Amino acid sequence: MKSGKCPKCGSANVRCKPGAGKIGHHGRIPSGGGFDVGMPVNRYVCAECGFVETYVDDEKARSQVAKKWPLALRAPREG
Ligand SMILES: [Zn+2]
What we know:
This protein has one helix at residues 59-68; strands at residues 14-16, 21-23, 39-46, 52-55. By secondary structure, the chain is α+β, with helices and mostly antiparallel strands. The chain has one domain.
């Protein structure tokens, strides 16, 4: 998606507005993931099919996530 080509429909009509979003600001996600003012994200939107990808491009923000968020990789079921 960052290359400018949509992985879903193959269109090159992919748009990005840097700094257009934050996660965790104003309680959109409870606790804000440990970020006081929200985690900055960049969203890529395919103007053809509507597919959206969201990236945390800020290196400091990613290191915060690595420190504070649990790993997603877990056993499917416990017990
Ligand atoms: Zn698309």
